[in-house]
Structure formats: C-alpha cells, structure tokens
C-alpha cells in the first residue's frame, strides 16, 4: 500500500467537493459541478440526509459474534459456493492493484471475502474493518457506497472515494454489481474495493462480468430435469452471452439467467403454480427437447412463438427434484399448422406473402392448412 493517500485527478476532486457543498451542505444552487455527480449518488446522499445522518459522523464497524457469522454462512451457503471460484479468479486479476473482493447478501451483509492486500490479515485497519463475514455494509450502516448503491439501483456502479457520504469511508474506492438469482430476484452483490489506492473505474466492467459468472453458476447448480443453453443462430454463445434455462419434468421454467430472460423477453422465472411453461416460449413439443437431450444432440434450432429462432443445446439437468408427469403436448404437425396459420393471419390472408415469410411454396401452405383442417374434422 502507498504510504500516503492517492488522490483522484484534481478536476474530479473539485467536481466532487463542489457537489458535496451544494447537495449535502446546501451551499448555493446546483451547478455544473453537482450535475457531474451520477444521479444514483445524489439519490443515496439524499436518503442519508433524510435519515438524519451527517457526513462527519463516525462509522462504527462493530465486531461480529460467532453465532452471527454462522447464521450468515448458513443463509448464503448456495451463493458463497457459486461465488467462491469466481472470486478466486477475480482476486488473481486484481492482485497487483491492491483491490480485493467482497460478496454481500441482498441486505448488504458480508457473506464472503477474497484475499486481502498485504496477506491474510490485510495491510491496514480500513481493509480489515469491512473484510469480515457478517459485517453490515448496507446504506443504513455505512452510507453511500458501491454496495448500497448497487443494491438500491440494481445496476453496476463505480464510486470514487469522495462520493461516499461519510468522511470515514472516503478512503475507499469501489466498483459493485448486483447479483440476481435463478428466479430473477436480487440476492446480493459483488464489490471490488481498494483503500487509498489509484482509482480504477474499469473495475466496474470486471465486477459486472464476474457477477454474471456467479449468476450462471447458480443456474447451473439449480435442480431441474432439463437445461437449455441458448444462443442466437450464427452467434456462438459464451459465458457472457449464453442463455440458461432450467425446466422441470412437467415443462415449467424453474430458473433462468439474465441472458435467457432478455432473449426470451421474460422478466422472471418462478416456482409458483402459475410458472411459465415451455409451451409459452417454444413452438415445438417439449418431448422434442427431452429427446434431443437424451440423444446428446449438439444444437437444435428452436422456433419461438414470436417468429424468431434460437439455437438450443438441450442437456439433462442434475439434482432433479420430483415433479408432475409431463402434460400432453401438441404434435409437431399441429405446431407446424399453427405457425402457418399465424403467418397467413399476419399477412392478412395473403398466402403468397405468408409463403415467402415462411420460406416455403404456396402449394405447401395450402396443403398443410388443408391437412390441418382434415385432421381437426377427423378428431
């Protein structure tokens, strides 16, 4: 660690100081200096002021008892297990910067910590103050920080030292990214912090990517019968872009990562009785996905009801939990007919236009529709 504080660039320091005078101390109207503070920082400062806090108040990092440490570890067992290998990788990437990783739960309570600069005990008390399982680093305890703002805003952030509300915490520079569970709920955050070191705003990107890796591991550990690895055709998936979808034996979606929720335009996955079903997403029978997983097919092109197509790698899930037997699913013939009817409807009855959209001949459209009507009459 450096012997003396490492300050941000003078221009940045001036803007922060001016914003503090205007927004915290109420000295004069807002100016260009205050506008250079991120809106989410201003919102956090305002919450601290509304709570009756003052910047010069002392911040107490109280000791954490053994029973409290055990409780935190038990509550966050799955999160810590998924995060630990990622924290190890991150710690190697930041080893020469004197930053370290902190994992918290959704309340801002520390659940795990990476190696501290200067050895197992850290190089100074500022690092040791926050690098303890069970310590409260929420906004109610330490004011504005990357931890509190990432949890409040549910997006990644970078916080310069002077942007902390309390003067006691102005020694820290930190990047933070929220963590979302397999059902889309915020379950914690990953923080990368340095004490009186050169500021590294690029760590925001590292924190964001590392958070996505933790989320993916949580989905991979989720019990399910079938797991789909999704990507767009011609765009090979990787850890940052690949969608992951967990499906139970009855076809209900029980978990998903952020990429899958974005690709399928579905905000959440749930274990509720009204959970999203595969039939709501994919225009092909569930059995085809299970059959492909059993065969070990590398890639299956799957149509969506929106008319888009995705590439899926179906894999049998692990730690499968009992579920209801699969419901009867439509035959491929019926799904095909439904897609053709939709294309004709979208084309306002213009069969030629529908055929061009589908990439088939008009004769095929007529034949498929006639066969569908005949099958319906027979039923």
The secondary structure category is alpha+beta
Q: What is the count of β-strands?
A: 10
List low-confidence stretches: 320-330
List SSEs in N-to-C order: HHHHHEEHHHEEEHEEEHHEEHHH
Mean pLDDT: 85
Rg, Cα atoms, Å: 26 Å
Report the biggest beta sheet as strand number plus sense, adding barrel if it closes: 5 strands, antiparallel
**Total of helices:** 14
Distance between the termini: 78 Å
Helix content: 25-40%
Strand content: 15-25%
Anisotropy-based shape: elongated
Strand order in the sheet with the most strands: 2-1-5-4-3
Write the topology of this structure:
Layout: H1 10-24, H2 32-35, H3 39-50, H4 66-75, H5 77-93, E1 99-105, E2 110-113, H6 125-130, H7 139-142, H8 146-153, E3 157-159, E4 172-180, E5 186-195, H9 203-220, E6 226-231, E7 243-247, E8 253-256, H10 258-263, H11 286-295, E9 300-303, E10 309-316, H12 332-346, H13 351-358, H14 362-378
Antiparallel strand pairs: 1-2, 1-5, 3-4, 4-5, 6-7, 6-10, 7-8, 9-10
Helix pairs in contact: 5-9, 12-13, 12-14, 13-14
Give your account of this protein's structure.
This protein has 379 residues and is an alpha+beta fold. The longest helix has 18 residues, at 203-220. α5 (77-93) runs antiparallel to α9 (203-220) and α12 packs across α13 (351-358). The termini are far apart. The protein has helices at 10-24, 32-35, 39-50, 66-75, 77-93, 125-130, 139-142, 146-153, 203-220, 258-263, 286-295, 332-346, 351-358, 362-378, and strands spanning 99-105, 110-113, 157-159, 172-180, 186-195, 226-231, 243-247, 253-256, 300-303, 309-316. The chain contains 14 helices and 10 strands. The strands form 2 sheets. Strands 2-1-5-4-3 form a 5-stranded antiparallel beta sheet, with helices on both faces. The chain is elongated, with a radius of gyration of 26 Å.
């Amino acid at each position: 660690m450096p012997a003396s504080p490492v300050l941000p660039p003078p221009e940045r320091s001036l803007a922060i100081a001016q914003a503090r005078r205007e927004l915290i101390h109420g000295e004069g109207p807002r100016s260009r200096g205050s506008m250079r503070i991120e809106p989410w920082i201003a919102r956090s400062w305002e919450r601290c002021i509304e709570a009756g806090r003052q910047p010069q108040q002392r911040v107490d990092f109280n000791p954490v008892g053994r029973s409290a440490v055990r409780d935190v570890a038990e509550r966050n067992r799955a999160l810590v297990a998924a995060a630990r290998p990622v924290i190890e990788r991150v710690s190697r990437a930041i080893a020469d910067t004197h930053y370290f990783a902190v994992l918290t739960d959704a309340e801002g309570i520390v659940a795990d910590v990476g190696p501290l600069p200067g050895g197992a005990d850290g190089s100074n008390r500022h690092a040791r103050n926050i690098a303890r399982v069970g310590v409260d680093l929420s906004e109610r305890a330490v004011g504005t920080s990357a931890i509190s703002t990432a949890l409040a805003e549910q997006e990644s952030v970078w916080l310069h030292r002077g942007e902390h509300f309390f003067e006691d915490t102005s020694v820290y520079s930190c990047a933070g990214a929220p963590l979302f569970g397999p059902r889309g709920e915020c379950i914690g955050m990953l923080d990368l912090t340095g004490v009186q070191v050169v500021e590294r705003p690029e760590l925001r990107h590292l924190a964001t990517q590392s958070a996505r890796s933790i989320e993916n591991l949580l989905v991979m550990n989720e019990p399910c019968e079938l797991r789909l690895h999704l990507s767009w055709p011609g765009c090979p998936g990787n850890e940052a872009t690949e969608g992951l979808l967990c499906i139970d034996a009855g076809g209900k979606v029980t978990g998903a990562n952020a990429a899958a929720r974005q690709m399928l335009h579905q905000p959440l996955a749930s274990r509720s009785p009204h959970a999203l079903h595969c039939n709501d997403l994919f225009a092909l029978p569930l059995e085809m996905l299970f059959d492909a997983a059993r065969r070990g097919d590398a890639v299956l092109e799957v149509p969506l009801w929106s008319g888009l197509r995705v590439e899926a790698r179906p894999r049998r899930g692990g730690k499968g939990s009992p579920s209801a037997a699969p419901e009867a699913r439509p035959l491929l013939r019926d799904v095909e007919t439904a897609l053709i009817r939709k294309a004709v409807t979208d084309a306002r009855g213009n069969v030629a236009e529908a055929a061009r959209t589908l990439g088939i001949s008009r004769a095929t459209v007529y034949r498929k529709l006639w066969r569908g009507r005949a099958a319906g009459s027979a039923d």
